[in-house]
Amino acid sequence: MLVKFRIYPMTQAHMSRDVAQVLEILETTDLPYELSPLGIRLEGEWDEITDAIGECHRALVRQNGRVITTIVIDDGGPIGVMDDEPATDEINRELRRAVPVET
Predict the structure, then answer these.
(1) Where are the domains of the chain?
(2) CATH number for the 2-75 domain, one of 3.30.70.930, 1.20.1250.20, 3.40.50.10050, 3.40.50.12780?
(3) One-character DSSP codes across 39-67
């Protein structure tokens, strides 16, 4: 299972300290993760992933008071691939729109 998640503290604009704290929590797990500009990607089993995200969420709530957490789950696909492009390409074809070409 692949998951992308984001945690947004609502009390501050700069989040580098919060992101560092989340990464420190993830380092205590055995889950492979990847930081990107749009969130953090995790790979693992349901219980492990939800436990890890829950711990990150609760830590930032304690620190900031209010946070918003979003989670995107990709279950049943090939491990290591979380890509929305094939689905959006197919939708564009259905709508008879040009599919973007990568350069």
Answers:
(1) 2-75
(2) 3.30.70.930
(3) EEEEES-HHHHHHHHHHHHHHHHHHHS-E
Q: What is the pTM of this model?
A: 0.73
Is the distance from CB of 8 to CB of 66 less than 8 angstroms? no
pLDDT digits (tens, 9 = 90+) for 4-22: 999 988 887 778 889 999 9
The one-letter code for the residue type at 54 is G
Q: Does the pLDDT at position 1 exceed 60? A: yes
Q: Is 15 helix (H, G, I), strand (E, B) or coil?
A: coil
Distance of alpha carbon 75 from alpha carbon 91, whole angstroms: 20
Cα–Cα separations (whole angstroms), residue 65 to 11, 16, 59, 60, 82: 7, 17, 10, 8, 31
- Residues with Cβ within 8 Å of 40's Cβ and at least 6 positions away in sequence, in order, are 4, 5, 6, 22, 23, 26, 33, 34
